[in-house]
Specification:
Blueprint (H helix, E strand, L loop, with lengths): L1 H12 L1 H9 L9 H17 L2 E4 L2 E3 L2 H31 L4 H24 L3 H23 L1 H6 L1 H72 L4 H29 L7 E4 H18 L3 E6 L6 E4 L1 H19 L6 E9 L2 E8 L6 H6 L15 H11 L3 E7 L3 E9 L14
Parallel strand pairs: 4-6
Antiparallel strand pairs: 1-2, 3-5, 6-7, 7-9, 8-9
Helix pairs in contact: 1-3, 1-8, 2-3, 2-8, 3-4, 4-5, 4-8, 5-6, 6-8, 8-9, 8-10, 9-10, 10-11, 11-13
The structure holds adenosine-5'-diphosphate (ADP) and magnesium ion (MG).
InterPro entries: HATPase_C_sf, HATPase_dom, His_kinase_dom, HisK_dim/P_dom, HisK_dim/P_sf, Sig_transdc_His_kin-like_C, Sig_transdc_His_kinase_LytS_TM
GO biological process, one term: cell wall organization
Main location: membrane
């Protein structure tokens, strides 16, 4: 009976960690204070609702674990909210133990604030967590013994072994697991930013090279105009060509800069057709340098509206295009093609290459963090891209044969159907 109670209470205590993994799984952001407030309040409510009533009016649950967690990850504000929630709910429940229970909980609140100060200013988190676990598991029994000694002596095993052990394990488990999950998330966010700069810097090297070509052409025309006696019509023609070259270079550079800038967080109506054209222009020089032909095979004449963050979409397109080009570098007559097709409520973006291809085993590992077969690869490009596509309610399908090539089919709901969110599929 008591085992069942302990297991149920530990489950409530671990609720914030479980919800973190569910809610933030596909998000490129870390937990917020609001998240801690909501999950710890919910957890406290459930723990108190299903608490163990040993003697009439005395209830035991994992409230101390939740208070400690709330203060450590959500600060003073979360602690105060939990305190108010506790008092209100405890008054509503009633019973003999109100005042003893409230003073113990108030004490937990202050102890948690104290440990929070130490936790924030030290790197020895495990030690602080263990110390907090020990103190917070002993003090409830101690205060109860000072106020109502018979409660402790009547249930000696529970108060000396079960509850202290439950608090100790709960505090250690919840704090360690949550801290690990949150720091993994922070590391991933950080790495995907670095991955972006890494990808962008490769493209920049080829872009700088490519900008020299129109410059050389324009220089040639200017020299011709300056030193040759050309007729007016020819001069105008050369000036027009030069202006066109300059315009094109200017637009490629500004598009490149728009990709390289730090991403905004805003989602909105985005024209995928335009984004694809931008990426083709920006990646053209990278493809030429790698001896790969890139082609836009099919594009609808009308704008293709989706709900997305434009910066994220561009980054995803760069990742897929860069992988496709990299898969082709050793291949003669290498070709990467992109096409956009409207099918029912979705837009299908197909990226096809005739590069090295992948085995079934490699396909099954796609999207796993840090999975890369390249000597200088990061294995973050697809992890990031899959997350972004999933968050848009899209799906990804892969077809690939070793030495034949690869075809990625990305399906994204069109603007009017964006609310429906199918799961990501890899086949
Ligand atoms: P990285 O490019 O840094 O290796 P990614 O996450 O972009 O990391 O890609 C992970 C792995 O997926 C690559 O190392 C490669 O083995 C494989 N891959 C991705 N796209 C293709 C493709 N078009 N053709 C063949 N292999 C690919
Ligand atoms: Mg890559």
């Amino acid at each position: 009976m008591i085992i069942k109670h302990v297991m149920l209470q530990l489950f409530f205590a671990l609720l914030p960690f479980i919800l973190f993994n569910v809610y933030y799984r596909d998000k490129l952001q870390n937990y917020s204070k609001k998240f801690i407030i909501i999950t710890s309040s919910l957890s406290l409510f459930l723990a108190m609702t299903f608490s163990c009533n040993l003697n009439s009016g005395f209830y035991f649950d994992v409230r101390h674990i939740i208070m400690y967690f709330g203060v450590i990850f959500g600060g003073l504000q979360t602690g105060c909210i939990l305190l108010i929630e506790f008092f209100v709910y405890r008054l509503y429940i009633g019973g003999d133990g109100i005042w003893t229970g409230s003073s113990v909980f108030l004490c937990t609140f202050f102890l948690s604030l104290f440990f929070n100060q130490i936790y924030k200013s030290t790197h020895r988190m495990t030690l602080v967590t263990c110390m907090a676990g020990i103190v917070l598991s002993i003090h409830p029994t101690l205060i109860l013994y000072l106020n109502q000694p018979h409660m402790v002596t009547n249930y000696l095993f529970e108060h000396m072994v079960v509850f202290p052990l439950q608090y100790l394990i709960g505090i250690w488990l919840l704090t360690t697991l949550f801290h690990k999950a949150a720091s993994d998330k922070a590391l991933f966010i950080n790495c995907s930013q670095n991955e972006k700069f890494e990808a962008i810097s490769h493209v920049a090297a080829s872009l700088a090279h490519e900008v020299r070509n129109p410059l050389t052409a324009v220089k040639g025309f200017l020299k011709l105009i300056r030193y040759s006696s050309l007729e007016q019509g020819k001069i105008e023609q050369y000036i027009d060509i030069s202006l066109m070259e300059i315009d094109r270079t200017e637009s490629v550079i500004s598009e490149y800069l728009s990709i390289a800038k730090p991403p905004s967080k805003q989602k909105g109506k985005t024209n995928l057709s335009h984004q694809v054209q931008v990426i083709i222009d920006v990646m053209a020089s990278y493809a030429i340098m790698s001896n790969v032909e890139i082609e836009l095979e099919h594009k609808p004449v009308v704008p293709v509206w989706i709900i997305a963050n434009g910066d994220e979409v561009k980054q995803v397109l760069v990742n897929f295009m860069k992988n496709a080009i990299e898969a082709c570098v050793e291949i003669p007559q290498a070709k990467v093609s992109l096409s956009l097709n409207l099918v029912d409520r979705n837009v299908l973006l197909i990226i096809k290459d005739n590069g090295v291809g992948m085995s079934a085993d490699q396909i099954s590992r796609l999207g796993s963090i840090y999975y890369s077969t390249k000597s200088s690869g990061t294995g973050l490009g697809l992890t990031y891209s899959f997350q972004v596509i999933r968050a848009m309610g899209g799906s990804i399908a892969v077809q690939s044969e070793p030495s034949e090539g690869t075809r990625f089919t990305i399906s994204i709901p069109l603007l009017d159907y964006a609310q429906e969110t199918p799961a990501t599929r890899i086949s």
